[in-house]
Specification:
- The protein is of the alpha/beta class and 185 residues long.
- The protein is built from 3 helices and 9 strands; from the N terminus they run βαβαβββαββββ.
- Strand 2, helix 2 (54-63) and strand 3 (69-78) form a beta-alpha-beta unit.
- The longest helix is centred in the first third of the chain and has 19 residues, at 21-39.
- The structure holds guanosine-5'-monophosphate and magnesium ion.
């Protein structure tokens, strides 16, 4: 794999390019076409899971043709080590509308153990949406602990800690235009 253009800060490890900006753009366009085929012009609430999905979400919603689209944002806080999800989750920001009887699409950066998404799905399902689906930029299948159906998947990977295109390591590297793996040295 070619090296990322940008070097990691000393002590963070090594950045190795995984998906470049053009590859990501093509993937996002393809996903948007599938989402449009699924919902057409039905009213749809797209929910960005902050912060990691912010850039993916911005690109994705701008590719959607649906003019009946509302944008909402949630933030979930999970406690534990930086690179492994502990599974203890809560909302530190919730949607600002009632989602009852609405089509809801959760837009997440990565589904890994599935614990975060399972929590959000269970919580949202209890609010009585008309439908509830998940779009994830990366579906990491190697460490799944909770059953989560990812309805729209960008990239599937087994493992590796990713940064860039919204994804961080200790809040760094979110603004990289591509997705890199941060490899410990
Ligand atoms: P899960 O609860 O599915 O184990 O974890 C999901 C969340 O952990 C993701 O939404 C993401 O915020 C974070 N996460 C999982 N894998 C990675 C990764 O490779 N890189 C980064 N930056 N965050 C990750
Ligand atoms: Mg996330």
């Amino acid at each position: 794999m070619e090296k990322c253009q940008v070097k990691a800060l000393p002590g963070d490890g090594r950045l190795v390019s995984v998906f470049g900006p053009e590859e990501i753009a093509a993937c996002v366009r393809g996903m948007a076409a599938k989402i449009d085929a699924c919902y057409g012009e039905e009213p749809l609430v797209a929910v960005c899971v902050l912060k990691g999905a912010c850039i993916f979400f911005s690109d994705l919603v701008r590719c959607l043709q649906n003019r009946n689209l509302e944008l909402e944002f949630i933030r979930i806080a999970s406690y534990g080590a930086a690179t492994v999800s502990s599974g203890e989750v809560l909302f530190s920001k919730d949607v600002e509308i009632d989602i009852r009887d609405k089509h809801v699409l959760l837009v997440e950066d990565i589904v890994d153990s599935g614990r975060s998404m399972r929590f959000v799905l269970d919580n949202f399902a209890a609010r009585g949406p008309r439908s509830l689906r998940v779009a994830a930029l990366v579906n990491k299948t190697g460490r799944r602990e909770r059953e989560v159906t990812v309805d729209f998947t960008g990239f599937s990977l087994d493992s590796g800690f990713l940064v860039g295109y919204g994804l961080d390591y200790a809040e760094r590297y979110r603004a990289l235009p591509g997705i890199c793996e941060l490899v410990p040295e």
